[in-house]
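task queued by scheduler; priority normal; single chain, no ligands, no partner chains; default sampling; output format set to structure tokens
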Amino acid sequence: MTSEAKLSKDDITVVFILGGPGSGKGTQCAKLVEDFGFVHLSAGDLLREEQQRPGSEVGEMIQNYIKEGKIVPMEVTIGLLEKAMIDNDSNRFLIDGFPRKVDQAMAFEKEIVESSLIIYLECSEEVMQMRLLKRGETSGRIDDNVETIKKRFKTFIESSYPVVEYFRKFDKVHTIPCEDSIDEVYAKVKPIITELFKQKEQK
């Protein structure tokens, strides 16, 4: 990390939560925060906040990428994540919706910190689309509409799913089917994180 960082890389636990749009990443993260004291960083939320920040030099560019369902340049996203990690002064981070490309994964692990494990929430496009359209009724998000949702699915399959395959090579990926209820999915996620911290304590 940069010289401003308050923690050494050895102390930091980073878990990536990956899955297509609407797979329930944010919902599962909220439960993990409650049980394990993680700080939850959503790459998408950080980008949307930056987009709305008065005087942002990259706000308009971010808006255009999000509207098109495309992936924002990684320098921007990694910079926002690093700043958020330093500002939060924690040593447990859940990062959801990132990395979205293999080069992002490699850059983050080289420049910031290596991830401990990856939880991949597996879900069919039909279920994800249904969830997103339902959310779009109240979210006010510019990307919760059929046209953008289809672009986001395409981007996920072409660019983001290879990230899951990349991490599989390192035996880091836990695949969780996530079409069941929130609690049923969480019952499969929680033991993985429990085991992670048990192993860390034994080291």
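post-processing summary
- DSSP finds eight helices and five strands in the chain.
- The first strand starts at residue 13 and ends at 19.
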